[in-house]
Write a structure and sequence with these properties.
With 385 residues, the protein is an alpha/beta fold. It is 40% helix and 15% strand. The chain has two domains: 19-44 and 288-384, Alpha-Beta Complex (Aspartate Aminotransferase, domain 1); 46-286, 3-Layer(aba) Sandwich (Aspartate Aminotransferase, domain 2), CATH 3.40.640. It is built from 15 helices and 13 strands. The structure holds glutamine.
Length: 385
Amino acid sequence: MHDYPGIVRSRLPDVGTTIFTVISREAAECGALNLAQGFPDFTAEPALFDAVTQHMHAGRNQYSPMTGQPALRQAIADKMSAVYAARYDADAEITVTAGATQAVYTAITALAGPGDEVIIFEPAFDSYLPGIRLAGATPVFVRLQAPHFRPDWEAVERAITPRTRLIITNTPHNPTGSTWTLDDQRQLAALCERHDILVISDEVYEHIVFDGAAHASACRLPELARRTLVVSSFGKTFHVTGWKVGFVCAPAALSVEFRRVHQFNVFAVNTPCQLGLADYMQHAARYLQLGAFYQKKRDAFRAALQGSAFELLACSGTYFQLARHEAIAREGDQAFVRRLMREAGVASIPVSAFYHDAHDPGLVRFCFAKSDALLEQACERLRRF
Ligand code: GLN
């Protein structure tokens, strides 16, 4: 190793490798069942692969338009209209991205800079904060309180200053599995209206909501949609997290700013996947049944953990289940997760990883986007622990 004093000045000196990568590596090393990183261990339908490979073999392998394939943007526009009654123009208001992480990063870069404050709710998905820092903007944290993790709108209002430019929201919420109601979105809309703030709404788990609830997308309220970039992804919806294809729906003026950065950030997203996804999306049942599919897994997972030492928190969306481990040990969640991995052979994510100050609410996150057999085996180990 060489040192280059004075030449390498880290833009993110306090940041290590993401917790998902670290724990997945450790889980593989010690042969633990991986309920840590959020990705399914089962496959998508062959029809999706057929659609993509057909386009590949038909020679559609060159650059896509910078904003995304027209067929996919139209399919997204149709879906947003059918599911949320939200009207987005496929040409001017929808952009295909290389996954939602890129979309959020690009949106922050496009809209916030030095002197601007950006509000995030903690626990927060771990990519938001570095995005804000790299943009030179100032993060402002509003804490969501266990066990329900609902936003306290008075606390949000107190966090707003004349410099507040952006609020990043996320429902259904990673890592807590909580969901906002339309009433929450109404409160957000009123605040943003009053203080003239823009919103990045991370909705990648939009089709994973439970117990008959409808997803409270920001785009369902016109007064909120006009100042919001709605970010979503196909990875969660179609069990293809490795394809890294997502999208942003935003009013034309915001989409123009988003695209100014996007074109130099990724330029365009891979062509055959976009075309295959456009074909596959034509059957709405393929995403509308996702909530019922994961609700079964949630229920089975929770039932199988009855009688374990974990106290399970409510889960109304996403494929994540929070569990309180304080009844078992008070060693801190990072140490607990390592011990659980070593002694029980089950990997999870320490929730302190979702706080800028490593606040430890005594919780771990399990991902239940796994085959029934793997979940059963993991639960058996967790019950014995
Ligand atoms: N969204 C996934 C999770 O929360 C992981 C994404 C990632 O590894 N960057 O586990």
